[in-house]
TrEMBL record:
This is DegT/DnrJ/EryC1/StrS family aminotransferase. InterPro entries: DegT/StrS_aminotransferase, PyrdxlP-dep_Trfase, PyrdxlP-dep_Trfase_major, PyrdxlP-dep_Trfase_small. It comes from the Bacteria. Belongs to the DegT/DnrJ/EryC1 family. GO terms for molecular function: pyridoxal phosphate binding; transaminase activity. Its cofactor is pyridoxal 5'-phosphate. The modification N6-(pyridoxal phosphate)lysine is found at K185. It comes from Arthrobacter cavernae. Keywords: Aminotransferase, Pyridoxal phosphate, Transferase. The keyword Transferase applies. One of its GO terms (biological process) is polysaccharide biosynthetic process. Pfam families: DegT_DnrJ_EryC1 (PF01041). The active site is at K185.
Length: 363
């Protein structure tokens, strides 16, 4: 096996990011300050059509503080997918509320509105769907359901920077939304998160919760955290923000090439009116997925990943007897192939050849 390994994800950090960090270090103003404020303003303009953005130290903090700021706590139920990264349910549980798991639709791996409706009780306070893999959840159906039952909608947009529905950006639909800035996401600040909200009282509580409950120094108004982003991280994020649009176009071109050339596997579908930003390019291998993934790595040196092999409702902290058959099927059959913007044409051709050969051998 002489060919180089194709990694499943690859953060792109260039000279501009290095220079921006250096400039912050030179000022000596390392903690949250002007750089963070500028990052919030720019993120709002570029990705949120002007909706307010509040920077925090991780995506998980963003969900947790967003839930607290929106008034979620003990006694509340929040409906979430089981087919997601555990941070979604963790953040609900950390508020003292109960995460309630609903099933997904197999076409887009996002919450199935019919399953969500079946889980609504008189304790349901909110629905928090995930724009999984960079594909928007069904914002119209979930929005209609929330209005009908008088519950809130929060968006886990950790994987969906720039995704949109009929031209409207994700992150502008819910009472609040969270974007992760972890290194493998579509853009990064090192670690970090951005919370958007159109509600001024939620925005104010977010800013208080992030900084020990203080707006003015030593005049603490509530019990809060230290969840601040540093100027150093914001400097990286600001540079990345100028590049994420181009990277997304490259991801979409890479996905189009894979769509057109893969055979023998189930390729991702994009719902009518949706812009998919391909945080992951996720296929399904109906039989023998694990052996397929192993062979892709061992025989072809093509990296890949399973997101996520164990549904949240089967994990120790959240164990339930819920039957979520579509979630179970997805967990057993999904496989994400490299789609990141650093892939060369040769890489893409190697991925196609490897997948098609393995699919043919397995059929
Ligand atoms: C990455 C991720 C998170 C958590 O973000 P962090 O920045 O890693 O804390 C939450 N939800 C989903 C769906 C994610 O992919």
């Amino acid at each position: 096996m002489s060919q180089e390994f194709i990694p499943p994800a690859k953060p792109i950090i260039g000279d501009e990011e290095r220079r921006a960090v250096d400039a912050v270090l030179a000022t000596g103003q390392l903690a949250q300050g002007a750089e963070v404020a500028e990052f919030e303003k720019e993120f709002s303009q570029v990705l949120l059509d002007g909706r307010a953005a509040v920077a925090v130290n991780s995506g998980t903090s963003g969900l947790h503080l967003g839930l607290l700021a929106a008034g979620i706590g003990p006694g509340d139920e929040v409906i979430v997918p089981s087919f997601t990264f555990a941070a979604t349910a963790n953040s609900v549980a950390l508020t003292g509320a109960t995460p309630v798991f609903a099933d997904i639709e197999l076409d887009h791996y996002t919450l199935d509105p019919a399953s969500v409706e079946a889980m609504i009780t008189d304790k349901t306070a909110a629905i928090m769907p995930v724009h999984l893999y960079g594909h928007p959840f069904d914002v119209d159906a979930i929005g209609a359901l929330a209005a009908k039952h008088g519950v809130k909608v929060f968006e886990d947009a950790a994987q969906a920077h720039g995704a949109a529905v009929n031209g409207r950006k994700v992150g502008t639909f819910g009472d609040f939304a969270m974007f992760s800035l972890y290194p493998t996401k579509n853009m990064t600040s090192g670690e970090g998160g951005m919370v958007s909200t159109g509600l001024t009282d939620v925005e104010r509580r977010l800013r208080l919760l992030r900084n020990q409950g203080m707006e003015r120094q030593y005049e603490n108004e509530l019990v809060g955290f230290n969840a601040r982003m540093t100027n150093i991280h914001a400097a990286i994020g600001r540079v990345q923000l100028t590049k994420v649009g181009g990277w997304t176009r490259t991801r979409q071109e890479n996905a189009a090439f894979l769509d057109a050339n893969l055979s023998g596997v189930i390729t991702p579908e994009v719902a009518e009116g949706c812009e998919h930003v391909y945080h992951q390019y996720t296929i399904r291998v109906p039989e023998g997925r694990d052996a397929f993934a192993q062979a892709l790595k061992d025989e072809y040196n093509v990296g890949c990943g399973v997101y996520y092999p164990i549904p949240n409702h089967r994990l120790a902290p959240f164990q339930t007897d819920d039957e979520l058959p579509v979630t179970e099927e997805a967990a057993q059959t999904v496989l994400s192939l490299p789609v990141h913007p650093s892939l060369s044409q040769n890489d893409l051709e190697r991925i196609v050849e490897a997948v098609n050969k393995l699919a043919k051998a397995g059929s």
